[in-house]
Each structure stands twice: as C-alpha cells, then as structure tokens.
Amino acid sequence: MSIEILLLFRAVHIVAGALWAGTAIFYFFLVEPAAKTLGPDGPKFMQALIQKRRYPLYMNVSSALTIVAGALLYWNMSGGLQLLWIQSGPGLGFTIGSIAAIGAYLVGFFMLRPRGERLGKLGQQITMSGSTPDPAQAAELQKLDQEIRAIERFDVILLTISLLTMATARYWVF
Ligand code: HEM
Questions:
Q1: pLDDT tens for each residue of 70-85
Q2: Best mutation site among 60, 166, 171 for ligand 1, i.e. most ligand atoms within 8 A of its Cβ?
Q3: CB 71 within 8 A of CB 13
Q4: Per-residue DSSP letter, 134
Q5: Domain ranges of the chain
Q6: Each residue of 127-168: pLDDT tens digit?
Q7: What angle do CA 61, 62, 63 make, to 5 degrees?
C-alpha cells in the first residue's frame, strides 16, 4: 500500500470512527436523557433529529466508512492476515478493537434499527389518531423504549472498548 493511500485510509478511518463512537456516546448520555425531560416536545425533537436531520443515515455512513477503511488498514498491517502479527501485542489490540466495533455495528443494524423503525411507526399512528396512546400502544411504547435503551448501553460499551483499544494497541507489549 503506498503512503498516500495509507494516509487517506487512516484519515477516513480515524475521522469517521471518532464521529461514529463520539456521536453514539453523546447521544446515549446527553441527547436522549435531555429529550426525555422535554415532555410532549421530546418525541417531536427526536422526530426532527431522525427524519429531518437524518441521524440514522449519518450513523450508517460514519460506521460503514470506519469499518471499510479499518478492514483495509487491518489487511495491510497484518501483511494479509499473518498469524504472527495477529498474535503480537498490537495485533491482539487492533483485533479486539475491530471485533468490538463490528459487533457494535451488527447490534445497531439487527437490533436497534428494527425497534427504532417500529417506534417511529407507532409514534406516527398515535399522532394521526389525534389522541393519547391507548393502553396497548402505551405498553408497547414503554417496552420498546426499555429495550432500545438496554441495547444502546451495550452498543456504547462495545464502542468504548473499540475506542480504548484502537487508541492504545500500537503500544501493547507482551
Ligand atoms: C469505533 C470504531 C473505531 C475507532 C474509533 C477507531 C479508531 C482508530 C484510531 C484512532 C486508530 C489510530 C491508532 C494508532 O495509529 O495508533 C486506528 C487504527 C486502526 N484501526 Fe481502528 N477504529 C475503529 C474501528 C476499527 C475497525 C472496525 C477496524 C477493522 C475492521 C479497525 C482497524 C484498525 C487498524 C488495523 C488500525 C491500524 C492502522 C495503521 O496504523 O496503519 N478499526 N483506529
């Protein structure tokens, strides 16, 4: 890999990774709790963030760029997946970080996305009905909300592991 290509992949990887992990952590600890304090304006704010500002698209693009550029860097660094490098300190560190980040992506794609879409549809139904949620809708809203929060917590843990290992792996020695 030429130095220009390596620099390009590193720039894309690190900028996209910082945006992905940073935003997920910011969203979990600050945005969502703040939206929940807004009462009926909370869902409106979340709708604007998701539909008008396209938060899911932003997360999809930043995570995909991180993973694609990261996989190419991994291939390059490991000399085409050489076991000797993978078993070294840095090799183990980057491997753990890569698996954690890919795990976070898969959890987001297969567990968060469908629940987020269901929540959006339910919200629309309630808005269109022009009244407050009926008991079944209220129960489903609460269940979805709890599930989403638990999955997001797991996702944030995986991204933090990735962030920490990526930041330090180069200097792992044993
Ligand atoms: C939350 C997601 C991620 C973040 C924040 C992140 C961040 C970083 C940072 C800051 C570095 C520079 C470390 C250094 O130079 O010492 C790095 C390097 C690296 N990352 Fe990631 N990364 C993430 C996900 C991934 C994934 C999913 C893969 C693989 C599929 C990966 C593979 C690599 C590799 C191989 C390097 C070393 C590249 C080199 O030095 O040429 N990363 N990452």
A1: 999 999 999 999 999 9
A2: 166
A3: no
A4: P
A5: 3-171
A6: 888 888 889 999 999 999 999 999 999 999 999 999 999 999
A7: 95
